[in-house]
Amino acid sequence: MQFEFATASKIIFGSGSSEKIPELTAQLGNKVCLVIGGSPERARWAIDSLTTKGLSPHVVTISGEPDTDTISQATDGVRQAGCDVVVAIGGGSVLDAGKALAALLTNQSDLFEYLEIVGKGLPLTQKPAPFIAVPTTAGTGSEVTSNAVLLSPKHGMKVSMRSADMIPNIAVIDPELTLSVPPAVTATTGMDALTQLIEAFVSNRANPITDSLCREGMMRAAGSIRPAHADGTDLTAREDMALASLLSGIVLANAKLGAVHGFAAPLGGEFKAPHGAVCACLLPHVMEMNVKALKERDPHSEALHAYAEITIILTGDIEADIEDCVSWVKDLCQDLQIPGLKEMGVKKEDFAGLVEKTANTSSMKGNPVKLHKEELIKILEMAF
Ligand code: NAD
User: Fold this and answer.
1) What is the distance in A from the centroid of ligand 1 to the CA of 95?
2) How far, in Å, is the centroid of ligand 1 from the Cα of 320?
3) pLDDT number for residue 131
4) Average pLDDT of the chain?
5) Taking residues 130-154, what's their average pLDDT?
6) Rounded to the nearest whole angstrom, what is the distance from the C-alpha of residue 65 to the centroid of ligand 1?
7) Which of 2, 122, 176, 215 is the most exposed place for a label (fewest CB within 10 A)?
8) Ligand 1 pocket, 149 CB below 6 A?
9) pTM exceeds 0.85, yes or no
10) Which CATH number goes with the domain that contains 64?
């Protein structure tokens, strides 16, 4: 058994923990770049509290999932402002933007020099500027991951800038910040976390540390995703989902993912659907296909045992089999009103191109079994 494990140097979890941000920021730098989402009023408290601490921030606003143009433009501003610490407060989109900006503050080349797949994928030569990540959605776990996902419009792909040094220095997870997340976003982001936990648990890079975190995260998400969706003010459910999301980020950074996220790279690049919705609508079908392929080609695989364990954790029934588990996930998607690929604008003619692009993604390498082209097409048909 051989593995490595890395995560943020400090994780601060708990309702009210965001009050510590000004003090933590002051310990790391003098000129702060504050990255926030498209509704600045939601981050007013952060601007005010940093200003009161004497850290008047250079504010970068990110609307929607970040693309390479937005990041390149923001990089110029952040470098000119002389920022030496970055704080990002928002959903995964904002955290990824902040993560990329922290890296580009100290690594002076063009963004495409560092981007995987569509760029040169060169390693960073300098450590990124100190970075504090504060999630306001419960889904991506980006507060503890080593990559920033960016859309490259000219390639129609979502790709990553990635380095072990890009794991945020401090992750502050305050579940109270997620109380205002509307039901549709609670559903899609929550399903992203659950998908990450499931894919990391069956991944061919899983290790005993990631496995134990996956079990805890899947249990929390399975029990709390419906309550958090039904009543956004349910703080206990929000805490569980914030913890599940955090754990999903730790495991994805250490164990890789699988075919759902392999597909999410081109689908997210070509169609305007939230990342979590793309993951959710593919999840039950990838589970079904993986189990079928494993039974046929690798019947003694540890991943089949992992799927059996997932079944018990999700359904809460020790007698349940994988078909019951797939049905459980399908029912959950239905209850959370997750749309199918067709409703996201995908057409059957797109399938072949999507499958081709999926093959090169880094997530695909973590899938527990190599799926054939026909099997990948079948997954898209089932999720249509
Ligand atoms: P998001 O950040 O795009 O946010 C979704 C919506 O929720 C936005 O409209 C946002 O303004 C709103 N929102 C955020 N916080 C809110 C709050 N507290 N109250 C009300 N509204 C709120 O969605 P996301 O799912 O968190 O992030 C998606 C992005 O993260 C995608 O680009 C995806 O590819 C990426 N991602 C990155 C990683 C990683 O490890 N870096 C992992 C998974 C996903």
Assistant:
1) 8
2) 33
3) 98
4) 96
5) 97
6) 7
7) 2
8) yes
9) yes
10) 3.40.50.1970
